[in-house]
Amino acid sequence: MKRIEVVAAIIHKGDKILATQRGYGEWKDFWEFPGGKMEAGETPEEALRREIWEELETRIVVERFVKTIDWDYPAFHLTMHCYLCRVESGCLKLKEHEAARWLTKDDLDSVEWLPADRDVVKEISAYP
Ligand SMILES: Nc1nc2c([nH]c(=O)n2[C@H]2C[C@H](O)[C@@H](COP(=O)(O)OP(=O)(O)OP(=O)(O)O)O2)c(=O)[nH]1
């Protein structure tokens, strides 16, 4: 099966986390953490900073690794490395996404997450 390796930014601000809504493709309208496929030779941190700049014209600080998710979609196997991040500068301009929302832990399940994200979202909701 085809495999893809993706990095995802769990961007936090105060008690909120940023969710973005996919603007294209098979999973259009589902919600995700911004990010994307790693390119050859990139570290996860470099890939995250590049993707967030491309998608949101925003610079981020990558604070720490959270977890790696493995998920089988019908057409490929996804390995997704999730990192806790914060905004360094920029105003989250939506270059590719349809919408973005800052969600508190209590609101996290108010949007329809991509299937691979549901476990990590549940974990975040359980943080003290
Ligand atoms: N960015 C991101 N992708 C996710 C998440 N959860 C999840 O299943 N995915 C899947 C959806 C996509 O199949 C894949 C990411 O690919 P992408 O299309 O966003 O990456 P990209 O911008 O590098 O891709 P491309 O359109 O330029 O080919 O990972 C998530 O939280 N964030």
UniProtKB/TrEMBL annotation:
Protein name: 8-oxo-dGTP diphosphatase
Record flagged with keyword Nucleotide-binding: no
Catalytic reactions of this protein: 8-oxo-GTP + H2O = 8-oxo-GMP + diphosphate + H(+); 8-oxo-dGTP + H2O = 8-oxo-dGMP + diphosphate + H(+)
Biological-process GO terms, alphabetical: DNA repair; DNA replication
GO terms, molecular function: 8-oxo-7,8-dihydrodeoxyguanosine triphosphate pyrophosphatase activity; 8-oxo-7,8-dihydroguanosine triphosphate pyrophosphatase activity; 8-oxo-dGDP phosphatase activity; 8-oxo-GDP phosphatase activity; metal ion binding
The organism of origin for this protein: Pseudoprevotella muciniphila
EC number: 3.6.1.55
Cofactor requirement: Mg(2+)
Domain Nudix hydrolase: 1-128
Keywords: DNA damage, DNA repair, DNA replication, Hydrolase, Magnesium, Metal-binding, Mutator protein
